[in-house]
């Protein structure tokens, strides 16, 4: 673009979004298309691209103790347009299956996401209304920007549906809320008013150049149906309290208005959004920078990297106690989990150029070690953590080495090495839940009755669905990788590795998993093999210190392709197994029973891609990612779902999952770099020195 002006220098063109996706009228009306906005404190604003609440988690959620103790305060705006004596409600509230209050869906002309900032457009009686939504960082606020284009004067009436509850539950009766009128600012407090000290809602209206009429709140009950909760067998109706709050009179030609809905907590109380449009511009610029930094860091300058880099930002949040960066494992219901955080770290931070956050994230979990174990999860009520994981601490060792390899941060390596060695000491001599190195072979034993320790960790009351006690295969790969990480970090620091003997002994023993021409998924304490066909062997073989042969890798690739591979991930159990469950749906007990018994998971697909690349199968690796690449725009927009049903491949679980999103980014970068290398002419001589950091130690 050029300027024809000769009176002065051309004005710079504002940079546009790096990632963009648009939906036509029919697609935009699908309530299953969900969008996520986050504030970096664990709070979020969740809804469909059309604005329909679909879960008890929809609306505005704020954290009282970042990133946990989260409460839902606001479900949806109420939006009514008046033009030439006619009226249309622009919102859409599902009040029963397929029955909507408001004309929001039928008036939609399309929607878009610009660097994952959602925008919808509606048309009524010749008036166009564009609505954009965003969350300013650390604000606890959802901001709704309205741009109206009209040839005649119009009135826009704005209000909202309010609640005040724990985010996991619903109001079955009319909530006791107190509205405090205040002109352009209205407060909505829960039972007990300001005495309870809990979070409350502050709604503020901005409309420069328009006439604003502040209405006296007249709260009325409004029943809302949550379709996604119904599908999960959860309570699916809620009674909210709604009220119109303002009327904005706009002149011919149109104008603009902004509704700021803020959850006020001790952390966010001092935050204000004085100029919503300037705040939007700042947030859009921040997202553009995230996308471009990831493209530069990863060496892959395409739109998928840009999209996933912006998505990655949603999961990186501040933790108050213990202080530091952490990772929300999935939205809308997970808190921060150790295993998920360490698996996701590479994609969320190292490939996106967010090295300071990576260091801080590692520090959070290194400081939280207990008897050599990292927290499996921090409790959502803010009351501590659970340590029932055998692999979380081992993934921490892998993530630490990847961070140091990519950044060259030997100072952090030196300060972290004592904690890594203590972690390994605990595993060698024995720690909680029967986790210890077996004196007979040096492999890692784990498990006790009633405890689930691997990533296949479902427990239904007293039933551990996939116990895998003994020696799970991927745990051995991680054990070797953790021992190897200590050796390589020690070498880099000029220190003597302390576990060379333990590493050598465990490597010598690993071939015991190869029996009858295939790898076992686990060995019992007495050596009895579990021959279940699961993706865990691929996870083990993709790690750097696991001994194998090309023929064995080829055998694993064939087995995964024949029994586990789908377009969106890998089955957790072969469909040929009698225990296979192909339906992931219904009540929680039904979902949990299928969770790791055939349900498809996206994140382990990256390990399979790594095996393909190790055998030079670049095209097959790209083909394996095709389905997930398309899925990015069909459920949790810009993200990857937690799981898919084994038979129908319908997305389930959290629509926004950290390790799913991060591992797709890592796999896409690995394949893209392999494609680029394959397209270049082979050099006459092989250059000396290490591989580029973009490919080294990211696998």
Task: Give a verbal description of the structure.
This is Glycogen debranching enzyme N-terminal domain-containing protein. Residues 34-253 form the Glycogen debranching enzyme bacterial and archaeal type N-terminal domain. It is a single chain. The protein has 699 residues and is an alpha+beta fold. The protein is built from 16 helices and 40 strands. The strands form 12 sheets. Strands 1-9-10-11-12-20-16-15-14 form a 9-stranded antiparallel beta sheet. Helix 5 (338-350) runs parallel beside helix 7, helix 5 runs parallel beside helix 16 (658-679) and helix 8 crosses helix 9. The longest helix has 23 residues, at 276-298. It starts with 19 loop residues before the first strand and ends in a 20-residue tail after the last helix.
């Amino acid at each position: 673009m050029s300027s024809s002006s000769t009176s002065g220098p051309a004005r710079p063109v504002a940079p546009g979004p790096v990632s963009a996706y648009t939906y036509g009228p029919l697609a935009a009306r699908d309530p299953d298309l969900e969008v996520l906005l986050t504030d970096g404190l664990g709070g979020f604003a969740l809804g469909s691209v059309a604005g329909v609440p679909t879960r008890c988690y929809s609306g505005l959620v704020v954290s009282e103790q970042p990133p946990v103790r989260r409460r839902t305060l606001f479900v949806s705006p109420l939006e009514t347009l008046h033009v030439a004596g006619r009226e249309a409600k622009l919102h859409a509230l599902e009040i029963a299956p397929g029955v909507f209050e408001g004309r929001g869906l039928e008036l939609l002309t399309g929607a878009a996401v610009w660097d994952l900032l959602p925008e919808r457009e509606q048309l009524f009686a010749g008036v166009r209304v564009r609505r954009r939504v965003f969350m300013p960082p650390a604000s606890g606020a959802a901001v709704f920007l309205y741009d109206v284009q009209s040839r005649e004067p119009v009135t826009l009436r704005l209000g909202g549906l309010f609640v005040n509850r724990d985010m996991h539950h619903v109001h079955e009766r009319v909530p006791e809320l107190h509205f405090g009128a205040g002109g352009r600012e209205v407060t909505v407090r829960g039972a007990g008013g300001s005495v309870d000290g809990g979070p409350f809602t502050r709604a503020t209206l901005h409309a420069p150049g328009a006439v604003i009429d502040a209405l006296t709140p007249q709260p009325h009950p409004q029943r809302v149906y949550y379709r996604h909760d119904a599908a999960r067998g959860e309570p699916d109706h809620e009674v909210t309290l709604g009220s119109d709050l303002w009327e904005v009179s706009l002149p011919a030609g149109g104008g603009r208005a902004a509704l700021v809905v803020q959850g006020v907590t001790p952390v966010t109380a001092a935050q204000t959004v004085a100029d919503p449009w300037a705040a939007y511009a700042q947030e859009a610029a921040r997202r553009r920078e995230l996308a471009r930094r990831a493209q530069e860091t990863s060496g892959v300058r395409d739109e998928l990297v840009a999209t996933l880099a912006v998505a990655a930002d949603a999961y990186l949040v501040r933790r108050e106690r213990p202080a530091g960066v952490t990772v929300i494992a999935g939205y809308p219901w997970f808190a921060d989990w150790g295993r998920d955080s360490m698996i996701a770290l590479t994609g969320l931070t190292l490939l996106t150029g967010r090295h300071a956050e990576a260091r801080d994230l590692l520090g959070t979990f290194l400081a939280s070690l207990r008897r050599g174990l990292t927290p499996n999860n921090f409790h959502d009520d803010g009351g501590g953590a659970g340590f029932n994981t055998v692999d979380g601490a081992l993934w921490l060792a892998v993530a630490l080495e990847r961070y140091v390899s990519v950044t060259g941060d030997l100072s952090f390596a030196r300060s972290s090495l004592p904690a890594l060695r203590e972690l390994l000491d605990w595993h060698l001599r024995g720690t909680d839940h029967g986790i210890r190195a077996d004196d007979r072979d040096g492999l890692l034993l784990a498990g006790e009755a009633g405890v689930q320790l691997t990533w296949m960790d479902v427990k239904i009351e007293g039933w551990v669905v996939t116990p895998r006690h003994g020696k799970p295969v991927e745990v051995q790969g991680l054990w070797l990788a953790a021992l190897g990480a200590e050796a390589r970090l020690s070498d880099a620091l000029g220190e003597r590795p302390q576990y060379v003997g333990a590493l050598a002994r465990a490597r010598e023993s690993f071939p015991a998993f190869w029996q009858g021409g295939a790898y076992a998924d686990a060995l019992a304490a007495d050596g009895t093999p579990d021959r279940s066909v699961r993706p865990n062997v691929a996870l083990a073989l993709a790690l750097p210190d696991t001994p194998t042969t090309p023929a064995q890798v080829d055998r694993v690739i064939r087995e995964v392709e024949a029994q586990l591979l789908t377009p969106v991930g890998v089955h957790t159990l072969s469909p040929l197994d009698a225990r296979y469950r192909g339906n992931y749906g219904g009540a929680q007990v039904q979902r949990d029973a299928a969770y790791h018994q055939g349900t498809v998971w996206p994140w382990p697909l990256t390990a399979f891609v790594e095996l393909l690349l190790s055998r030079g199968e670049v095209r097959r690796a790209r083909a394996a990612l095709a389905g997930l690449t398309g899925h990015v725009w069909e459920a949790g927009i810009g993200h990857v779902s937690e799981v898919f049903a084994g038979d129908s491949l319908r997305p389930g679980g959290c629509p926004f999952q950290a390790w799913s999103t991060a591992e797709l980014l890592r796999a896409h970068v690995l394949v893209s770099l392999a494609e680029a290398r394959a397209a270049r002419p082979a050099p006459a001589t092989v250059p000396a020195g290490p591989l580029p950091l973009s490919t080294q130690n990211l696998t």
